[in-house]
Write a structure and sequence with these properties.
The protein has 582 residues and is mainly β.
């Protein structure tokens, strides 16, 4: 008491929102039996403090406070109301990101006012992560609530398929509620609607009617182990703790793969060049195809290859261009050629089919009429007609025979069918019965015999000879067959021939013969056999050859190539010569 005045004080330390409200100060004079009340309204200034209250329409008298950042489980088809309350002054409240259905619908989450939302006929689409947010001049606050509807998932309606390869693809599931549903995962079904178009890729256990599935716990799912060039139907189901959705709409996808073998439509020989046409492959997916075109002479094993890239552009499809072709020039006329065609893309190379064509040219001994055209800017002028008869091709050699086989060698003899300066030589072709490729030896035109060396032991050979002139080649002679000696027979003959030398070594030491016969016998046998071969050939050429009219030897191109006939008197083996250049 000071100067007749009484003091009373109320202190609120560390004020909280629960300290707000009305405070009454009561005073009085007991002597006069009088009292005085004074009301103080206390407001707490600070950032808003939020809380959410649940009102269940089935139990309207029960209100439930929702804990901060918790999950709310709602039964299917229930109606509920959620109110967000802010303990602050002043403040504004807003609900955000609630529900996956349009608020204009009769069902779904509907916002009644700024602080209240209502769920009518709750369904799986209403599962969402909602949050209520409030702010004032002192700050802001947000409270989250995970609404989970106890209902089976709705059907998946938004599916995208990307990154399709030959054996796998990726399915993207566009679902906003996938992480909110309790225990949610997806079943992805697939069923092949057609077998692979390339028979080399078909699985032995491939069954069109089988329905396969796999589970996926994410919205991005990779599907593996599919068949190339196969059309599949894909559909999905969503599964959670409360049931399974119906099937989604089916998506039809055709897998990629290595190209099928392109089909050669036609091979046309136009004398100067050959035109090969084939049916273009259209993968309908923008994949570029590279065609590998190869050709060779049928008697050669060396393929010549050219690559043609075919861009699967939209312009080609609009023009309906379905045939591709290639020109091949500088082929030897009157020869047999093999052609093959393969297609390659990012997933592999197709198989190929080999087509064979005999190239044509001017016929021998035939009269042709021709004229020359002169073309200028003014016009075309024709020359007078002229005639020319082509030369006759030579005949094949006659009486082709094998005079003898000694130590992996054979002496071949024949008789000429043609004489004159136009004959440039002979080509001797030979191979074993088990081989598909002929070896060849060039023989000068003055010769009627040759020796084939480096043959295989105990093998059956087939042989024919062609006469070559400056005008072309003859047809093959009649096929001749012969058998080379076995290794055992050669060793027997060689050991007999070298017996004296071996006994001489053996006489110096009792053990010498046993220890050295495997060293000296093959060497001595080889030397003696080679001497016998050359001696036999020399005597045969000197005393057994029939006389013939010799022609001047000329260095003439052999079938317009760089391989020329040698002037030497004996033929030289040319086993490594590539027949492509004949």
């Amino acid at each position: 008491m000071a100067n007749g005045t009484y003091f009373s004080q109320l202190c609120i330390l560390d004020a909280k929102y629960n300290n707000k409200g009305k405070y009454i100060l009561r005073s009085g004079l007991s002597a006069y039996n009088q009292g005085y009340d004074r009301v103080f309204n206390v407001k707490i200034k600070g950032p808003p403090k939020l809380s959410i209250t649940l009102h269940d329409t089935k139990h309207p008298t029960i209100n439930k406070m929702i804990h901060l950042n918790s999950s709310l489980l709602v039964n299917h088809t229930d109606d509920i109301t959620l109110t967000c309350v802010a303990e602050s002054f002043p403040s504004s409240i807003v609900w955000l990101n609630c529900g996956n259905r349009d608020n204009k619908n009769l069902n779904g989450i509907i916002q009644i006012n700024d602080s209240t939302i209502q769920i009518v006929q709750a369904s799986f689409h209403d599962s969402s992560l909602c949050y209520c947010m409030a702010n004032n001049t002192y700050g802001n606050e947000r409270i989250n609530i995970n609404i989970i509807i106890r209902a089976p998932p709705a059907n998946i309606t938004d599916i995208t398929v990307k990154n399709v390869t030959n054996t796998n693809l990726i399915i993207f599931i566009n679902s906003d509620y996938s992480l909110l549903a309790k225990g949610l995962f997806y079943l992805i079904f697939n069923q092949a609607m057609s077998k692979p178009t390339n028979t080399t890729m078909r699985s032995q256990n491939f069954n069109v009617s089988t329905i396969n599935y796999q589970t996926c716990h994410d919205t991005i799912c990779k599907i593996n182990f599919l068949q190339p060039w196969t059309t599949y139907n894909f559909w999905l189901q969503a599964v959670n703790d409360y049931g399974r959705s119906g099937n989604s709409s089916k998506i039809r996808i055709t897998m990629k793969g290595m190209p099928i073998s392109p089909q050669i439509i036609k091979i046309t020989d136009n004398i100067d060049f050959v035109v090969l046409e084939w049916q273009a492959l259209n993968l309908h997916d923008g994949t570029n195809i590279t065609y590998s075109f190869s050709y060779k002479q049928s008697t050669s094993n060396k393929w010549l290859t050219m690559l043609i890239t075919d861009h699967q552009e939209e312009s080609l499809q609009k023009q309906n261009i379905s045939v591709r072709y290639v020109h091949i020039a500088n082929l030897t006329k009157g020869s047999s050629y093999d052609f093959k065609l393969q297609a390659t893309n990012a997933f592999g190379t197709s198989s190929s089919q080999i087509k064979r064509l005999n190239t044509i040219g001017l016929k021998s001994g035939t009269m042709y009429n021709f004229q020359i055209l002169s073309i200028s800017k003014v016009g075309i002028t024709y020359s007078e007609w002229a005639s020319y008869k082509t030369k006759e091709l030579p005949n094949p050699p006659r009486n082709v025979s094998v005079q003898g086989t000694v130590y992996r060698a054979a002496i071949i003899r024949w008789r000429k069918s043609n004489f004159g300066d136009d004959i440039t030589g002979f080509a001797v072709y030979y191979r074993t019965n088990s081989s598909s490729i002929y070896d060849m030896q060039i023989v000068n035109s003055s010769e009627i015999s040759t020796i084939l060396t480096n043959l295989q032991y105990n093998s059956t050979y087939q042989l024919y000879i062609i006469t070559v002139s400056i005008y072309g080649r003859s047809k093959p002679s009649k096929m001749v067959y012969f058998q080379t000696a076995s290794l055992r027979d050669e060793l027997y003959v060689n050991n007999s021939l070298s017996n004296t030398t071996l006994n001489y070594h053996g006489s110096n030491s009792p053990d010498g013969f046993a220890n050295n016969d495997h060293i000296f016998a093959p060497i001595a046998a080889t030397v003696i056999s080679l001497l016998l071969i050359f001696l036999l050939h020399f005597l045969y050429k000197r005393y057994c050859r029939r006389p013939h009219i010799s022609a001047p030897q000329q260095d003439v191109d052999f079938e317009d190539t760089d391989t020329q006939l040698s002037k030497s008197t004996s033929g030289v083996s040319s086993r490594s010569l590539d027949l492509t250049y004949l």
